[in-house]
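Example 9 (inverse folding). The structure is encoded as follows.
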């Protein structure tokens, strides 16, 4: 059994050495393709977190009518507190509003007009974990029906527009990933096919001596395995170094999944096995 395994492993390495040019081209293809895939994985891994960061900074303001009383304010506040999407509610009274006006415009509104016309309002911060755009819009629409509410400063359409654009970009990434996988499969299949053609006489000898199809195919699977592991691991190292450099140079905080190298290598092995099986089944069955 050990002799058979040693023979199969040595034959797998021999096929790598015999078809150096084809294997080098295949390795370069795997490296480039999985470098791009690794980049997409990192972008996708960070996209949702960046959207959530944007959402946590998103607020809407509820402006009350001028003659609002405390009871009406409490009713609206209680309505907001019952929503799981609301993280924080801050009351901005007329004095606070005057200070904000002074900070933004450098003018004292009471000195300008002789009185303070700014309304009392509530500043509402939304939760990251429980954010749901449709529920936010429903909440805002319900608040607008309150008699005590004069206006709501709501920018939910901007969030939806941003998410739609991000989803469109991700869809484009998905199409590119499919194209990259197709190229990888074709390249590995062509490499294995070339290996089979160069060793056709040896394969015929094995068949004549009663070797099983699996025994004949195993060296080619080993060849594909080595190329897939080495090419994808090299791609992971380069992608990690590039994003580490980007984080350091541009002072960003792009996160890299700790298991990215496992996903890349595993995915590459699966693609390599499929591509190898495709060629082997075509020539050896």
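The amino acid assigned to each position is listed next.
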């Amino acid at each position: 059994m050990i002799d058979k395994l040693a023979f199969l492993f040595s034959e797998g390495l021999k096929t790598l050495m015999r078809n150096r040019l084809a294997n080098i081209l295949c390795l370069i293809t795997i490296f480039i393709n999985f470098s791009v895939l690794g980049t997409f994985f990192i972008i996708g891994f960070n996209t949702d977190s960046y959207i959530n960061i944007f959402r946590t900074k998103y607020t809407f303001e509820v402006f009350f009518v001028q003659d609002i009383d405390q009871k009406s304010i409490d009713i609206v506040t209680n309505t907001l507190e019952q929503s799981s999407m609301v993280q924080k509610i801050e009351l901005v009274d007329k004095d606070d509003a005057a200070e904000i006006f002074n900070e933004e415009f450098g003018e004292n509104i009471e000195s300008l007009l002789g009185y303070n016309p700014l309304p009392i309002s509530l500043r509402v911060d939304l939760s990251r974990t429980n954010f749901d755009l449709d529920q936010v819009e429903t909440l805002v629409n319900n608040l607008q029906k309150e008699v005590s509410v004069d206006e709501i400063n709501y920018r939910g359409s901007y969030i939806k527009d941003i998410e739609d654009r991000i989803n469109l970009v991700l869809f484009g990434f998905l199409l590119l990933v499919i194209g990259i996988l197709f190229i990888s499969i074709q390249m590995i299949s062509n490499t294995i096919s070339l290996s089979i053609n160069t060793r056709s006489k040896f394969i015929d000898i094995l068949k004549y001596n009663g070797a099983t199809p699996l025994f004949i195919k195993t060296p080619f699977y080993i060849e594909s395995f080595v190329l897939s592991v080495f090419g994808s691991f090299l791609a992971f190292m380069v992608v990690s170094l590039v994003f580490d450099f980007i984080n350091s140079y541009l002072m960003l905080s792009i996160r890299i999944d700790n298991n990215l190298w496992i996903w890349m290598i595993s995915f590459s092995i699966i693609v390599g096995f499929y591509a190898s099986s495709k060629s082997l089944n075509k020539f050896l069955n």
